[in-house]
Amino acid sequence: MKKRYARAELGAELRARGFPISISKLNKLCAPSVNQGPPTSGWWGPRPLYDLDAGIAWAEALLRPKRSALQIPRSNQDTPTSRSAMEAAE
Questions:
Q1: Can you give the C-alpha Rg of the chain in angstroms?
Q2: What is the DSSP letter of 74?
Q3: Contact 10, 52 (CB under 8 A)
Q4: Which of 23, 36, 51, 75 is most buried as measured by Cβ atoms within 10 A of its Cβ?
Q5: pLDDT at residue number 20
Q6: What is the C-alpha separation between 63 and 56, in angstroms, rounded?
Q7: In degrees, to the nearest 5, what angle opens at C-alpha 27 toward C-alphas 51 and 55?
Q8: Nearest CA to 23 among 42, 50, 46, 53?
Q9: Does 87 score more than 80 pLDDT?
């Protein structure tokens, strides 16, 4: 029989495997209004239980190969400055 994990236990296992997810973020993703958390494998009363392999697969699916253009911080060299702004600074 496979071990089933409570949400906090699943979060601890994911962090131990290098996924930087907090229990707060995991709770938010599992909220019914968001419904983007890992799949449940069963329920113990009102508590959802999770399978570790399915939780890891869920976390791996959230990985992206690279950052999007909106997430890349711009350096000062990329910021256009006007000549009048440069003259006013002098």
A1: 21
A2: P
A3: yes
A4: 51
A5: 94
A6: 11
A7: 20
A8: 50
A9: no
Q: How far apart are alpha carbons 89 and 68 in whole angstroms?
A: 33
Give 50-61 pLDDT, tens digit per residue: 999 999 999 999
Q: How far apart are CA 61 and CA 76, in angstroms?
A: 34
Q: Strand, helix or coil at 72? A: coil
Query: Can you tell me which residue has the tokens 């006007």?
Result: 82
Taking the mean position of all CA atoms in its chain, how far away is CA 53? 17
Evaluate whether 59 touches 11 at the Cβ level (below 8 Å): no
Residue length, the chain? Answer: 90
Alpha-carbon distance 49 to 71, whole Å?
Answer: 34
E strand or H helix at 42, and its extent? strand 40-44
- What the block records as the tokens of 16 is 């131990």
Residue 33, helix vs strand vs coil: coil
CB atoms within 10 A of CB 5: 20
